[in-house]
Amino acid sequence: MTDVVASLVERSIAGVTGSSKKAFQLGADIVELRLDHMSLLSLDREVLRHIRAAVKGPAIATLRSAREGGRSKLSKSKRAEALEEILESGFEYVDLELANDSRLLQELRGRRLRAKTIASAHFFKPASRDTVEHRLREACSAADFGKVAMPCEHAGQALMLARIGLRTSAANHRFILIGMGDQGQLTRVCARQIGASMAYACLPGRPAAPGQLEISVQSSLASHDNIVLGLVGHPVSHSVSKPMQEAALKKAGLTGTYMHLDIPEGEFDRDALVTLNLLGVSGLNITIPHKLRAFELCDKLGASATATGAVNTVKFDGESIVGENTDLHGLSLMIERKIGTCKGTRAVIVGAGGAARAAAKALSGIGASVTVAARDFRKASALAREFGMDSIDLRALAKRSEAFDILVNCTPLGTSGRHARSRLPSGVFKGNPVFFDLVYNPPVTSNMKEARRRGAKAYGGLEMLVHQGAESFRIWTGKEPDVQVMLRAARRALA
Ligand code: NAP
What we know:
Layout: E1 3-8, H1 13-26, E2 30-34, H2 45-53, E3 59-62, H3 76-87, E4 93-97, H4 102-108, E5 116-122, H5 129-142, E6 145-151, H6 155-170, E7 175-180, H7 185-189, H8 191-194, E8 198-202, E9 213-214, H9 215-220, E10 227-233, H10 241-251, E11 256-262, H11 270-278, E12 283-286, H12 291-297, E13 300-301, H13 303-308, E14 313-317, E15 320-324, H14 327-339, E16 346-350, H15 354-365, E17 369-374, H16 377-387, E18 390-393, H17 394-399, E19 406-409, E20 434-437, H18 446-453, E21 458-459, H19 462-477, H20 483-494
Parallel strand pairs: 1-2, 1-8, 2-3, 3-4, 4-5, 5-6, 6-7, 8-9, 10-11, 10-12, 13-15, 16-17, 16-19, 17-18, 19-20, 20-21
Antiparallel strand pairs: 12-14, 14-15
Helix pairs in contact: 5-6, 10-19, 10-20, 14-15, 14-19, 19-20
The chain binds NADP nicotinamide-adenine-dinucleotide phosphate (NAP).
């Protein structure tokens, strides 16, 4: 059982009364009072009793020191005195710091206390697996609950924390393990599956720590029919899949969460997929640069994955990891709707990664004769050979006098962020081919502007995104999504 703890950061007792009432109404099981944030003249027994009485439910008292990221600047001796008072003031739980309060933690051993103790430790930058695991074990043996928080720069570190949590849970310890920041959210979303005793959450719009989920979201995750989905890629910050898929879940009457998991290349391996499965994740989208690796890592491959040699959708089916490719469906639908069949038309694909494979299959499927162009000619020719197509170096394509009818950009060039200013060489637009840009953020890319400036038709990747996402949704849930709802949610997120 994982209790939802509402972290309350209030300055006054009146503030505590109002916020704690609201927190319990929203579904919190316990509230945490950050005493270090309150403007109090003293922390004597009388004041503490007033504060405790303001909360009509179980409460944790936390006096976070500046050394551990809080606001309390009490000297060591004053801190020890204050904590002794707090321990006697009727709080169900008291947070003590593993490093600063080590002496008190030792003294409390064997003493009968009304309050349960939490020994907490905070890292200010990502630490190694051994360091975190050692600190958590120390914390667990120092108090009733051990608590460790660590910032996560990428979701690979959250996966590491999750694995530590699973092992700690198997050893029957009571613990709280928090990955801070957006990329640590996996530890919050999957707190129950990790085996954590508590998950800290916030009042709407008032996070007390980076990455905290709102109380109602955190408590809805406890429900067993909650669906957890995610996107694995690097980077993922440009993606609008989260609002799009969450809108589809809501419209279909399902409760669920979709996470953006930024996992760098070296960290995406079989262990990552197995851990996500153990954490109860139902399915994943896979994006740049992991689609080919995902193809190798799956236990079973659907027809779409086998046809393309790339996986953009994973479904966890018991212990089995099943790969599919819904880019193929999304792109085929978009091309068919815009230009119908292409018998005899000459198409060129720029890029030789996962999406290029779906484009190769989609274009050859509707009768086009296809050439693959890439900055790395070896990759272009390997892909072209596999699909029985021609290949060309991207620089040579830009200089070539012969024109194509269709041009498909399967590179990230033009994507907002790191690639925003980079463009395809202008020579590729020779002869004004119909241009399909798989990039959808921004909705009108610099490459689309260039194609249109020359008088060509140009389409962005949003329509494909929505249709590949809808197909993934069908695979994960077995339900029909509302595609218009998904489109509107994606547009809103891009606006
Ligand atoms: P990927 O597997 O990593 O492949 C990326 C391709 O782009 C590789 O061939 C890579 O070449 C090439 N590339 C990267 N940077 C380049 C540069 N500066 N100049 C020239 N080529 C470059 O990624 P993917 O999954 O195929 O995705 C490709 C793009 O399509 C991404 O922007 C993705 O967001 C978009 N996409 C959109 C949708 C949609 O629904 N609209 C669906 C799928 C993909 P190297 O191998 O030499 O690095």
